Automatic annotation (TrEMBL), chain A:
This is Acetolactate synthase small subunit. InterPro entries: Acetalactate_synth_ssu (IPR004789), Acetolactate_synth/TF_NikR_C (IPR027271), Acetolactate_synth_ssu_C (IPR019455), ACT-like_dom_sf (IPR045865), ACT_dom (IPR002912), AHAS_ACT (IPR039557), AHAS_small-like_ACT (IPR054480). It catalyses: 2 pyruvate + H(+) = (2S)-2-acetolactate + CO2. PROSITE patterns: ACT (PS51671).
Automatic annotation (TrEMBL), chain B:
GO terms for cellular component: acetolactate synthase complex. It comes from Desulfonema ishimotonii. Belongs to the TPP enzyme family. This is Acetolactate synthase. Residues 390-536 form the Thiamine pyrophosphate enzyme TPP-binding domain. Binds 1 Mg(2+) ion per subunit. SUPFAM superfamilies: DHS-like NAD/FAD-binding domain, Thiamin diphosphate-binding fold (THDP-binding). Residues 193-327 form the Thiamine pyrophosphate enzyme central domain.
């Protein structure tokens, strides 16, 4: 059976140790985490985790059931296949020498990103978007010389019916 | 009125109906013990914390209540891990209370500090580090609720020393409700109608029942269902006692050391109804070939068990007892036609398998372990509560001591813990002081927790220990004989204590049989002697457990005697 990417959105109680229960469940049962984002929701007692995992259908069913079984897990949604918005964010520190500064700013403009830090030798660029956009901008900035990069994983929410 | 954390804990334990605690004091729990002795809760002082958890586990299985134990921080807590993992695998409701260093020292590598909540996260149903005396009552109530509800399991509560001493107002919610935890007890009725249709259609159905039937107290419902629908029943090791072994529909145990007729039935059946089982690899063997011609119905309270190992046609999430009660009602109204006629061919085929390969051994020469168990069954008239260690002794017991009732066979099924049997016998005897409790052990496994003999002596718990001494770690030796060309790498236990003298050193009685003719005599004397007893049987050194399915093979490919 083919492995596909699955996006899971999980509401949990905001308590110490809950993240470790979830990540421990994945490692202990040999499931794979591609990315994981977590922060409190509007209700400070509840956090939302977005996990991206690669698995075949029976395994993803098992992942969802096992997550539901944890006492601190309130709700598990799978977003894959339904309509949802998803974003990642990256901070990219690029070498900014005299002759490529304009080029970088042009790319930033085209991708509607922001320069959030400037120095004599670098620009730090903030990018948000889906995976495709991330890949595209990275492939353009790479030849100019990337010093460092920090990326979040995917965060995602259902689209409300229109 | 304000109470200390320790007083609050005792109050909640009383309210939860705890009358017995298995435990071992230490620096971090002195305050709890100081309060404990002021209550009428009975404390059983074990000799090793692992013993406390196994005893609480068996106490739970024998009494149907939640087993409780109390140990100190650090090494006390880590010594419980094997017992917790065993209870987790077998879904046994226990609450383990561990002491923890004072809050302000947590994370400082303090004396006898360990992150027990972190260590036990993967092997508890849930666990807690209590943050303050204010939340202690609620947490302990939740712990008991979680342990016993849904699919039962062990819950650990870690209490820092300052929380035991701090004052708080005693306030406890009457009803525990956790928004994120709602086990499904009631099955979907549409699914149950489908089940009945399939039972009517099936020509060669079988029931495969497990520990879940015992845990939900559904054995009467199961028996009624099987008899009414004329369906033969097999069980897993954990399910022994879920269906009476004297019933004509009984197939014997399934799996690696299951009976010939039971394993052959899985290959020929056209419908398998799994109830409270998880299709463990020791049962299914090679899963692709398991019940390959059958549609599978799976009834279980835990959705993660369903479709984890085998494909399922009708999943039914629900409590076994509730589900079987509904099924029996539906069955009563259903037109089943002439079931006896319909099933006769199938039952006849099973009878043929039974006659072709019965459980058998040849009592020639040295004592055969199977012979000991047959005699034990005879002389106890099948009435004892049996606990086992793990290995050949466990499998022979499962095969030759026929279990009629739930709670009568107590064994570490999922984790397979050597050292389980003796502390389990102690726990069962505490729960059922008037019953005869027998621990069946090997010479290897009994040495893992033999120190608990002292506990049995201290509380005058008359457990009877049967040691099948073959001078080997028998089950591993058997694998070495069959699959490693008899290279007995490190399985020979050349030196064992003199078990008769050892019994006497503990202040108990010891008996030994070295010849078949002495077996019955030793069992009779051992059973009628007062107090704890060791009966050692020097058995055939290289006897094997048959039938046997090599690990990973189809379960129909059995090595017979």
């Amino acid at each position: 059976m083919t492995e596909e990417k699955h996006v899971l959105s999980i509401l949990v109680e905001n308590q110490p140790g809950v993240l470790s229960r979830i990540s421990g469940l994945f490692s202990g049962r040999g499931f794979n985490i591609e990315s994981l984002c977590v922060a409190a929701t509007i209700d400070p007692n509840v956090s939302r985790l977005t996990i991206v995992t690669k698995a075949n259908q029976p395994i993803v069913e098992q992942i969802k059931k096992q997550l539901n079984k944890l006492i601190n897990v309130i709700k598990v949604h799978e977003l894959t296949g339904s309509k949802y918005v998803h974003r990642e964010m990256a901070l990219i520190k690029v070498h900014a020498k005299k002759d490529n500064r304009a080029e970088i700013l042009r790319i930033v403009d085209i991708f509607r990103c922001k320069v959030v830090d400037v120095g004599p030798e670098h620009y730090t660029v903030e990018v948000t978007g889906d995976e495709g956009k991330m890949e595209a901008i990275l492939s353009l900035l790479k030849p100019l010389g990337i010093k460092e990069i920090a990326k979040t994983g995917t965060i995602a929410l259902f689209r409300e019916p229109k | 009125m304000k109470l200390t954390g320790a007083q609050i804990l005792m109050k909640v334990l009383k309210e939860e109906g705890v009358d017995t605690i298995f435990g071992y004091p230490g620096g971090a729990v002195i305050d709890l013990y100081d309060e404990l002795v002021k209550t009428d809760i009975r404390h059983i002082l074990v000799r090793h914390e692992q013993g406390a958890v196994h005893a609480a586990d068996a106490y739970s299985r024998a009494s149907g209540k939640v087993g409780t134990c109390l140990v100190t921080s650090g090494p006390g807590a880590t010594n419980t891990v094997t017992g917790i993992a065993s209870a987790y695998m077998d879904s046994i409701p226990i609450v383990v209370i561990t002491g923890q260093v004072p809050s302000h020292l947590i994370g400082n590598d303090a004396f006898q500090e360990v992150d027990i909540v972190g260590i036990t996260r993967p092997c508890t149903k849930h666990n807690y580090l209590v943050q303050s005396a204010d939340e202690l009552a609620r947490v302990v109530r939740e712990a008991f609720y979680i342990a016993r509800s849904g699919r039962p399991g062990p819950v650990l509560v870690d209490i820092p020393k300052d929380v035991m001493n701090n004052l708080a107002t005693y306030k406890v919610p009457k009803n525990i409700r956790l928004r994120s935890y709602n086990p499904t007890y009631n099955p979907n009725m549409k699914q149950l109608h489908k089940v009945i249709e399939m039972v009517k259609m099936a020509r060669r159905p079988m029931i495969f029942a497990g520990g879940g039937v015992i845990l939900s107290g559904a054995h009467r419902e199961l028996t009624a269902f099987a008899r009414k629908a004329r369906i033969p029943v097999t069980t897993s090791l954990m399910g022994l006692g879920a269906f009476p072994a004297s019933d004509p529909l009984w197939l014997g145990m399934i799996g690696m050391h299951g009976t010939y007729r039971s394993n052959m039935s899985t290959a020929a059946c056209d419908l398998m109804i799994g109830i409270g089982v998880r299709f463990d690899d020791r049962v299914t063997g090679k899963t692709d070939t398991f019940a390959a011609q059958a549609k599978i119905i799976h009834i279980d309270i835990d959705p993660t068990s369903i479709r984890k190992n085998v494909p399922v046609s009708i999943p039914v999430v629900g409590d076994c007892k509730t589900t079987l009660t509904h099924l029996n009602e539906l069955l009563a109204d259903a037109d089943l036609g002439n079931l006896d006629e319909k099933r006769s061919g199938w039952l006849h085929q099973i009878e043929g398998w039974k006659n072709k390969a019965r459980l058998a051994y040849d009592q020639n020469g040295a004592i055969k372990p199977q012979f000991v168990l047959e005699k034990l069954y005879e002389l106890t008239r099948g009435k004892a509560i049996i606990t086992t260690e793990v290995g050949q002794n466990q499998m022979w017991t499962a095969q030759y001591y026929h279990i009629e009732e739930p709670g009568q066979f107590i064994t570490s099924g999922g984790l397979g813990v050597m050292g389980f049997g003796l502390p389990a016998a102690i726990g069962a005897q505490v729960a059922k002081p008037d019953d005869l409790v027998v621990c069946v052990a090997g010479d290897g496994s009994i040495q893992m927790n033999i120190q608990e003999m002292a506990t049995a002596m201290q509380y005058n718990l008359p457990v009877k220990i049967v040691i099948l001494n073959n001078g080997y770690l028998g089950m591993v030796r058997q694998w070495q004989e069959l699959f490693y060309e008899k290279r007995y790498a490190c399985t020979q236990m050349d030196h064992a204590p003199d078990f008769v003298k050892l019994a006497e050193a503990f202040g108990a009685r010891g008996f030994r049989a070295t010849k078949p003719a002495e077996v019955a005599q030793v069992i009779s004397e051992g059973l009628s002697a007062e107090g704890p007893v060791i009966m050692e049987f020097v058995v055939e050194k290289e006897e094997c457990v048959y039938p046997m399915v090599p690990a990973g093979a189809p379960i129909t490919e059995m090595l017979l005697v």
